[in-house]
Amino acid sequence: MAKREMRTRNTEEVKIEKATEVERETINVEKESRKGVVVNCLKLNVRKAPNKGSEVLYTVNKGEKLEIIVDESAKGWYKVSKSDHKACGYCMSEYVKVN
């Protein structure tokens, strides 16, 4: 199994190396992000996954700013990051005002 997995990884690396200039640019495109601020609650839970039962990673106070990772957000949830936290997580979109 290890040899097969290694061949698969090498094949993927070769495909990337042989990619055209346009394909390379597509591979390296940065994820779209926007700024937002916490509203309508005193403390907002940032969770590991986009659902209410998921583990809370940290909380953010009302008025604090977040970076919203648009491409990885889910219906009713934003994927967010905060400069003073290493982990990205999800919060309910109804509690974040997008700037």
Order of neighbouring strands in the sheet with most strands: 6-5-4-1-7
Poorly predicted tracts of residues = 1-12, 24-29
The beta-strand count equals 7
What percentage of residues falls in helices of 4 or more residues?
10-25%
Measured distance between first and last alpha carbons: 49 Å
User: What share of residues are in beta strands?
Assistant: 35-45%
CATH superfamily of the largest domain: SH3 Domains
H and E order: HHEEEEEEE
Count the domains: 2
How many alpha or pi helices?
Answer: 2
- Nearest-integer average pLDDT: 79
Helix and strand content put the structural class at: alpha+beta
Q: Might you state the CATH topology name of the largest domain?
A: SH3 type barrels
Can you describe this structure?
The protein has 99 residues and is an alpha+beta fold. It has two domains: 1-30, no CATH class; 33-98, SH3 type barrels (Roll). Helix content is 23%, strand content 39%. It has two helices and seven strands. The chain has helices at 2-17, 21-27; strands spanning 33-38, 43-47, 56-61, 65-74, 77-81, 89-92, 96-98. The strands form two sheets. The protein has a five-stranded antiparallel sheet with strand order 6-5-4-1-7, with no helix packed on it. A two-stranded antiparallel ribbon has the order 2-3. Strand 5 and strand 6 form a beta hairpin. The longest helix is centred in the first third of the chain and has 16 residues, at 2-17. The protein is globular, with a radius of gyration of 18 Å. Mean pLDDT is 79; it is low at 1-12 and 24-29.
